[in-house]
Design goal:
The chain is α/β, with parallel strands linked by helices. The protein folds into two domains: 199 residues, Glycogen Phosphorylase B (Rossmann fold), CATH 3.40.50; 170 residues, Rossmann fold. Helices cover 44% and strands 15% of the residues.
Length: 381
Amino acid sequence: MKILFTTPIFRFPSIGGPELRIETSIKALSKISNLVCYIRLPKLRLTSESDNFLNDLSEEVYYLDPHIPKDVFWPQILENEKPDLIWFGYGNISYVLMKYLKSITNIPLVCDTDSVWSKFILRELDVENNEKRKIEILDAGKIKENEEESWVDFCDVTTAVSEIDMEYYKSLTKDKNKIHLFSNVIDLSSYQNCIENIYNITSPSLYLAGTFWKNSPMEDATRWLVDKVFSNLIIKYPNLKLYILGKKSTEIVGDLSNQNILVVGKVESVLPYLKHVDVVLVPLRFESGTRFKILEAMACKKAIVSTTLGAEGIPVTDNENILIADEPNIFYQKVVDLIENKLTKNKLAKNGYNLVKEQYDIDNLAQQGKAICKYLGLIND
C-alpha cells in the first residue's frame, strides 16, 4: 500500500506542536505503508536534517517548486507514484487543494486535522470585548465552519485528535463512520536523554511555551497568567522565575520581561528549559485540539497546572496526573502546592509519564492509521 502524504508545514527537528504533529504522522504512516512525501515548501527553506529525516522514512520525497502550477504538478505525481491514498497533513488549512484533488482523481482522500479550526477562531469571542473585533471573529469562524462541512462531505475520511473533536465532525455528516481518531502523540525516545542545565535554571521556576501572534491564545493566556497569578506568586517567592518560550514570544509579550520573567523567544529545542524547570503551566482560555506542550511535559516527567480548556482532549484526571484550575486564585494555589509539596509534584510527574507511555506514543498512532486504511479497504486484517 502506498500513501502520498502532503503537508504545508514541516521542520525537523520539530520545535513546536505543528511540526511535532507532522513529524509523528510521518513516523507512524511509514510503519504501515510505502510512504511518499510531498512537502509544500521549497527545499531551500529546509535543513539537511529535515531532508535526511524524510529520506530515511519515505520512498520518495517531493518539494514545492513555485514555478510549476498545481494543474501540471499533481497529475504528474499521481501518474508517477500511483498512490492508493492521499493523506493531507493539516487538511484543515488545505481546503482549496483538497477540493481540487477531489475534482481530478478518485483516489481516497484523508483530511487530517489538528483541531476544529472554527472553534479555535470562535472561542476568542469569550475573551474579546471589542465589538469590531467580535464581528471579524464571527465572519472568520463562519467561513471555516462552511469549509469543515464541505470537506467532511467530500473527503473519504476526516481525522480528529480527540473524542471531543470527533463528535463535532460527526455532527456534520450522516455517515459517522467517516470520522476517525488520529491522535497527537510524541516519540518518547526523543525525551529520554539527559540534558545539561546550560541556562543555570534554579528553583523555583515555571515554564510556559507556545506559538504567539497578536491576539493569539498564547498572548491572552500569558497576559492573564502574569496579571492575575504570577504577580501574586512573586510576592510569596521573590526569586521565582517564569520562562516564556515560543515563536514570536519576544515580539508579542516581550514587554513583560523583567528580572523574574524571562521571555526567551523561539528556540531550537525546548528541552534545555523543560528538563530543568519545576512546574509547567498551560493557562489557555481559548483554542482547540490537544496540547503537545502537555504531552511533552509529561514525557519529561514534569508536574503541570492547566486550565480545563488547556487539557482538553487528553484523558487527564485532576490531582492524579495534572492539576486543573480556571480561576486565578485557584491557579495560584495549585502552583504553590507544587512548589511546596515535592511528593505531590513527583506523583503527578510519574502518573503523567505513564499516561503518555501507555496511550500517546508512535505505535498507538500507527495502529490508528492502520484502522483508517482498513476502513478504506486498503489493507486486510
